[in-house]
UniProtKB/TrEMBL annotation:
Bilayer topology: Multi-pass membrane protein
Keyword DNA-binding: no
UniProt-listed GO biological process terms: transmembrane transport
UniProt keyword annotations, A-Z: Cell membrane, Membrane, Transmembrane, Transmembrane helix, Transport
Signal peptide start and end residues: none
Segments of this protein annotated with the region Disordered: 425-445
Name the record gives this protein: Permease
Similarity comment: Belongs to the autoinducer-2 exporter (AI-2E) (TC 2.A.86) family.
Keyword NADP on entry: no
Record field: transmembrane: 32-54, 60-84, 91-114, 177-198, 234-256, 262-281, 288-312, 332-363
InterPro entries per record: AI-2E-like
Amino acid sequence: MSTTTDTTNTTGETAETNTNNRVDRGVVMNKWLKNTAMLTIRLIVIAVFLFALGKMIGTFWAGILPVILALIICTVLAPIATWLRRHKVPAGLAAILTMLGFIGLLGAIFSLIAPDIVNHSRVLYLQAFEGVQRLQLWLQGPPLNIDPEKINEAANDIAHWVQNQAGAIAGGVFSGISSAAGLAVTLMVIIVLTFFFLKDGHRFLPWLRSATGGRSGLHATELLTRAWITLSGFIRAQAIVSLIDATFIGLGIALLQVPMAFTLSVITFIAGFIPIVGAVVAGTLAVLVALVSLGFTKALIVLAIVIVVQQLEGNILSPMLQSRAMDLHPVIVLISVTVGGGLFGLVGAFLAVPVAAMIAVAYRYVLDMLRIHSGERTADELDFYTSEGAVIAKIAEEESAHERQEWHQERDWSAAPIIDEVPQPAERVSKTPGVNTGVSKGLNPSLKKLREQSAKLRRLGVKRNR
């Protein structure tokens, strides 16, 4: 009798709990629609802001491009200028000496390349012309017996296509520069900006903290330091990858006695700064020179050398270095280069990966702050590059504790299941009775804990209503 009474009470309590804990479906749907509408409005505002920002950058691109290029150059030269300042060299003199050394190195490389190009260009032209004539004679003879007029038409079409592509490439190289006073003026602006960045760049962050003050200065110091370290790491990693490509490809084509081997190596090094696309273009150029000058067999050998070196670089060296420098997936790199090249030509392809890396840096910093505010991580559990970043993280940790208490007091929040950031394979649930799988009743531990907490909250709600 007692058992029957307990069962009845339990059933009644369950029914009462279900009745008191129900709301109309319209209320739930209205809440969902409200949240969706608010999210849509926010996304529209963000999209409008990004569109306006893109338009503004496009309008002032002629002035922004020299600044970006000067910053990229400074990532290479800044360690040298810093080393000179540490050895008691005045900042201005250190910047001048660093730039003179850099310009001297570029001049030396150009002085080695220019005679090589001049000496071999006419020979390559004659060899290419002779090769085209041999190809025409072969096509006219058996077994193809193609009409010479059709061959001439096809050759003219190919020549027009090459000219158009050359014009497009030239336009891509000088896009954004031609709208300024001219290439010479733009180069002069880059040189002047580089000098001042090297001379006074170490004073920028202290000035920024004093100008903005408070939290903004601390956040900006940490975020800009991360961005600078990432950008410097990208340039260094890309330089190492390009140097290895140029060295091995240059040695291979030099052993085969391909004309302009050193020049092709330098072109390979420079083109390597455009990820994925640059290596393909430089390798194609080396194969074409070998085809024109040495014939089909040597060209195949050069193609094999280029493919082997680029496969080793793309599958082993580049992912290892780039993952340390930027932590970007190769798919993101490829998409960035494709979109940047399609929108802004070769300049866009060159700047696409650094821009993607900067966006990733900002995203990761926001994610770190979000973890601290949500209580998932403490400031000591995260890595910061500056003391200012550690300070603002401690402040955010203390303030977020009070914020979370206020949020919990507003309503009875049900705790979310604890999910690892890198999901682990779930245990298999046995369907055989009596077999212990390590998970009670076949439930994930987090889901089981969530259900227990939800049941506890429902019981508390029933008691309050009584």
